[in-house]
Amino acid sequence: MTRTLLLWCPDWPVLAAEIIDGVPATGPVAVLHANRVLACSEQARAEGVRRGLRRREAQGRCPGLTVVDHDPGRDARAFEPVVAAVEEVAAGVEVIRPGACALPARGPSRYLGGEEAAAERIVEHVAQNCAVESQVGVADGVFAAGLAARQGRIVPPGGTPEFLAAQPVEALGRPALADLLRRLGVRTLGDFAALSAGDVLARFGFDGALAHRMAAGRDDRPLAVRRPPVDLTVTTDLDEPIERVDVAAFAARTLAERLHERLAGHGLACTRLGIEAVTAHGQELHRVWRHDGLLSAAAIADRVRWQLDGWLTGARRGGPARPSAGIIRLRLVPDGVLAQAGLQPGLWGETGEERERAHRALSRVQGLLGPEAVVTAVLGGGRSPADQVRLVPWGDERLPARPDAVPSAARSGAPLPSWPGRLPPPSPAVVLPTALAVQVWDAAGEPVTVSARLAMSAPPARLSIDATAEALVPVGVGRGAEIVGWAGPWPVDERWWAPAEARRRARFQVCLADGTALLLAVERGRWLLEAIYD
Predict the structure, then answer these.
(1) What is the enclosing helix (H) or strand (E) of 252?
(2) Residues paired with residue 520 on neighbouring β-strands, in sequence order
(3) 120-124, 276-280, 325-329, 355-359: lowest mean pLDDT where?
(4) What are the E-state strand segments in 194-326?
(5) Distance CA 517, CA 510 (A)
(6) Around 293, how many Cα atoms within 13 Å sit in the side-chain half-sphere?
(7) Axis-axis angle for helices 353-369, 297-313 (nearest 10)
(8) 3-state SS string for 482-495
(9) Which end of the chain is more exposed for a tag (fewer CB within 10 A), N or C?
(10) What is the largest CA-CA distance in the chain?
(11) Is there a contact between 464 and 393 (Cβ–Cβ < 8 Å)?
(12) DSSP state of 405
């Protein structure tokens, strides 16, 4: 068994009510759950109040009793500072329940000079930082350490079975099982541990078998200690408000080097950086920068400098308004970190110099004009070319808005199209941001119509476009362009189950006499130009 040190705060629900709600724990106080006393103060016990009493009986024994309802959330919130205080002395703490926490005793006992010295140090530190009285017990296993903490004992190594053997069966915390064992003549944990494990399982079930293991000094699981997260944030307070970019750049470089050193000390690297600034008037500024590689100290410093330049002078270039006062505090938050070996360099080395220079230039534009000023296209799923492209800010994760794979097809490996009704390849070279209205005529000069059953009134022969939109399309697509070839219609009926979002249209591919190919659509009786093929 693991040598375990357990800290126990007596009457914790009462202390939590005092810490959170201001109920004075020095008077007669009782915390009730399901109309029974769950915990009570020392003065209430002096007047006869005990755990398990009904509310009326407890108030009958102590007329001045202050009754508080049980609140597990309150107990947990009040106990968090105690756990934090213990972690300041020794790492690897597991919260057993609000009011009790345990940790392996080997670590603190080795560097504090023994188990007794470690127990005294932890109790003293908790009392000084949280103003909470506590007791510590040390034994082999969590269960034995909890019983030892109630007595303030340090059980010597190997003495846990003997220590447990003298404890009454009520120490198991199972009243029904303890009452049954008493009636069977089993009064101590030693008597219970002496029984055969198979007989205990057959007679008392799995819960009884677990209690039997605990009585023998064998816990059901090892400690599940928590590791407190490392605070990697770096902050600097400036003596005077910064309003000039060159002064801000100097402070940014020093802060970036500190952050890089702190990350390197933990074997980490930054991929997403949060830059925060506070002005002299209390205005808070925040911006997150992303990077598809590892941010070096110089890269961090550059991004902080660009961002400060954008905040301080960006308004001159059409960016956000200048802060109301100079910057007095800078903070760098590594929002995304991974191990140094988490990114694999390219086959022929790191990223090329040209790509890095372009990335630096685009990132600087973002610092001046905002993250939405520079966007890149990400291909995804959809039935029309406009639905298959999503614009994301430069440096953000390039994830499609619509997945382009059917899970069942992906699992089976069948090469099925993920969007039924999707246009076949090749994809058009130019997708217009807004579809343009066009007119399509037949050989007789009559408008071409498409019925609800996709029947065309006549083959298309000519196409014309509004004169105001001619500058947006190639020269050949003007008024009176001749159609020499066409294909379609390809219908698409989307979201028919939602009338407000439903969309029904038919698409055509047409080829003009000058070789230009267009993607047209008919929707609600109107012809629209959606895209242009190369």
Answers:
(1) helix 245-265
(2) 508, 529
(3) 355-359
(4) 234-242, 268-279, 284-295
(5) 6
(6) 16
(7) 30
(8) EEEEEEEEEEEEEC
(9) C
(10) 109
(11) no
(12) S
Question: For residues 534 and 515, what is the distance between their CA atoms, to the nearest angstrom?
Answer: 9
Asked if 138 and 106 count as a contact pair (C-beta separation under 8 A), the reply is: no
pLDDT digits (tens, 9 = 90+) for 411-469: 444 444 567 777 777 778 888 878 888 888 888 888 888 888 888 888 888 888 765 55
How far apart CA 94 and CA 226 sit, in angstroms, is 6
For residue 21, give the 3-state DSSP assignment: helix
Three-state DSSP class for residue 476: coil
Task: List alpha helices for 48-174, DSSP H.
Answer: 55-61, 72-89, 106-112, 115-130, 142-151, 160-165
Q: Hunting for tokens 């127990």 — which residue is that? A: 119
Distance, in Å, from the CA atom of 76 to the CA atom of 115, rounded to the nearest integer, reads 27
The model's pLDDT over 354-411, given as tens digits with 9 standing for 90+, comes to 566 676 677 777 766 777 778 888 877 777 777 777 788 876 667 776 776 544 444 4
Length of the chain measured in residues: 534
Mean pLDDT of 29-34: 91
Q: Which two tokens stand for residue 218?
A: 């064998």
304, 308, 309, 315 alpha-carbon torsion, rounded to 10°: 140
Burial 30-66 (b: 16+ CB within 10 A, else e): bbbeeeebbbbbebbeeeebeeebeeeebbeebeebb
How open is the CA angle 407-413-414, to the nearest 5 degrees? 95
Q: Which tokens is 57 given?
A: 């009986």
pLDDT at 339 (0 to 100)? 67
Round to whole Å and give the CA distance between 389 and 531.
13
The CA distance from 37 to 60, in Å, is 13
Nearest to 37 by CA among 18, 19, 8, 61: 61
Could you tell me which residue, 531 or 352, shows the higher pLDDT? Answer: 531
| Paired sense of beta strands 100-104 and 94-97, if any | antiparallel
Beta bridge partners of residue 438, listed in sequence order: 465, 527
CA distance linking residue 237 with residue 150, whole number of Å = 47
Tell me which of 350 and 368 has the higher pLDDT: 368
Total-model pTM: 0.50
The residue type found at 81 is P
Q: Whose CA is closest to 279, among 328, 332, 315, 330?
A: 328
Nearest CA to 238 out of 252, 228, 224, 226 is that of 252
Bigger pLDDT: 400 vs 510: 510
Paired with 504 in beta bridges are 493
